[in-house]
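User: quick one
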Amino acid sequence: MPKSTPLSNIRIADLTNVIAGPVATRILGHMGAEILKVELPWGRAIGNIAMHGDDEEGRAYNKVSTFNEVNRTKKSIAIDLTQATGKELFKEMVSISDIVIQNYSPRVMGNLGLTYEDLRAVKPDVIMVSMPALGLEGPWSNYISFGPGTDALGGLSSITGYKNGQPHKPGNFYADHNSGFHVATGIMAALFRRYQTGEGQHLEIVLREATMSVIGEYFIEYQFTGKEPERIGNDHPVFYPHGIFQCKGDDSWIAISVESDQEWQALCEVIESTELRNDKNLSEVSLRRLNREKIELEITSWTKSKSNKEAMHLMQIRGIRAGMVAKASDILSDAHVSERNYLDTVEHPDAGEYTSPGLPFKFDKSSTNLGIRAPMFSEHTLPILSDLLARDMSTIDSLIDKGTTPLEPIDRVYS
Amino acid sequence: MAKSELALSGIKILDISSGYAGGYCTKVLRDLGADVIKVEIPQIGDICRSFGPFFNNEPNIETSAPHLYLNAGKKSITLDVTNPEAKDIFLKLCTESDILVENFKPGLMSQMGFRYDELSKPNPGLIMCSLTYFGQFGPYSNFEGSDIVSYAMSGYMHLTGDEDKEPMKAGGRQAEYQCGLAGSMSIIAALIARSLSGHGDHIDVSATEALTSTFDGVAYFQTYHKTGSDPTRAGTRLITREPTGAYPSTLLPCKDGWVHVHYSPSNPEGIGFLTGNERLADDEVMSRMREHADEIDELITEWLRDHTREEVQTLAQEVRVPFTMVQSIEETMSDPQNQHRKFFAPIEHEVVGKMSYPTSPFRLKTAEWEALPAPILGQNNHEIYEQDLKICVSKIIDLKTKGVV
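Assistant: Done. Structure below.
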């Protein structure tokens, strides 16, 4: 029996921008859903926070790396939703879609006349997804924030940092991706329920709440101790040694966590330190902690003589939890990553070939859509208008002329 | 509102995993309405029960913070599935479940006779999800892992921390949480596939890959291909360093702590307006923002110095500039937005008493999140073994003496 994708008969009208929303629909696109990405008429909003968008030949908007990664698998139609005809087109699109998703700040959909109630009127079992930064309701609901700002408001920055250092944050857009994955999860759950009951719903998933959910234990810890958790860098509250050690080469490191006395013994043997192994004062974790300097010196004197890959393999052979602090080039050339066919490489007419992360899971009996590039701006406007929305050529020409569905980005008018 | 309102109402989950990843995976499914039975090692239980911190600072398998958080609302039975005498009971439980979540090292389930093909014979709709640090196959599949090791191998560590210091791990256990979340996401996709095809699936989730998947949209690999050098950590700034890239996005100190300051593409001149500093809206700065990062930090800090976090946030948000406070754990729990949304809910637990718990990002307007405590180890043995599976009491006593139950 040929494998099929889990969401092969699902269509999504996607109004999301930047990262968190597009990441969610990108996942659903890999699962087989048809994603109709409704683009703003003035082009790609993330152009100015992206890289490699500059271009002398023009069409720089098709070369925005950020956009091209998070919008793989999707189709692009540009619609000016502030025009009445644009709104009508969008509603028609909703009437033949299963899901509508948006990540505007709470006021926008109401201002556009595209609330859940409005959309339910054209598609009674629609699943509508809102993903505000802080919530659709409440005293801070109109505050705007990107992902990293919710790390700050949600406690993650407060518990991240070097020992005795300032609050910090994970590099990148951790909160955006984390919430995007929560949203993809929530959407599929709502779809599953629709299969059972025939009913849609308005699903709200709040960026900051997704962040707080992946550090939940700290809120209970605070109530136990009455004290703020300390920032501990790479330390572990229980295990020691636990951290990273410098290896041979530029900015080259290995992470090691020793979680039992047997692992400690094995570590001493691998690094050929009879001094550490025979030291009865170090046989227990509580004692080891008191001798950090000595232990770290011994481990580092060994790791510094090895590349991080070599050190990792030597340690893993002896059952020690150790892994290189990988760089992009390490991952791109890694035999494990390659055998698992994890990366997703696509060819794009304007942007060329590019490689992005793949899916974080593998099915055995279902297939997934990988290797499908992001669309060029408004690339699918014509087929969507003619095939899905049954507009004739003269109507389509007029929509393009009036800027309702532009084929090229038009100058942005700030209102 | 009844639990039957929820998306996964009626779905039965058998969770034989131990630790954060499986804990979060089935917490998400439970929050979405599924019934979760945790299968735990007799006497010891889930490994999270042995991690502190503990209530009153006294080690106790019932009072560990991660256990109380992750396992709230689940049922617990004790069964050592690695013991051959547990096999019959385990197989019976599998035939009555929709989903099996496990996190043994790759190959161990097969060795015990629990290959997916075997388990799904009597229950073709069974969805089995295997959570590991490196996946079920590939040269590293037998590596020993941990949260920090996956964080390192995923590439994330190289991107976290200060430029002139060693790479750093984010707070908490993000590799394990992302592994669990990827598990819940894929399990629900498999449930949808099952509604259409009737057959289940075996899902392979790697914590390391789950974390690398969070590099989507940061031009992580593209930067290497285009510049020949690896993206690297940039303190609290974003890792992209294109001179023309947008800025700020960083943490800066103010009068009473730290704030997160961020550029808004829809309000490019907002920061200049907020601070009254014309230089921050100057063309020279605006056209090459990332290149001017140090200067921008300095100018904003000058303004921040005279304002508290709350003032900064209020003043900035009034003019649509996305500045937010760095809040402590305590402040986060009690801020007006979380209070209004009731994101934290009280739960009474028989050992630790009443505490406030984070609820879930998956709450419906129509249904309250069901605030139930984490189970006492083996709390549901009687209910599951005697009432549901109809195993006779003497057999259970026998298995208990042998340490199987």
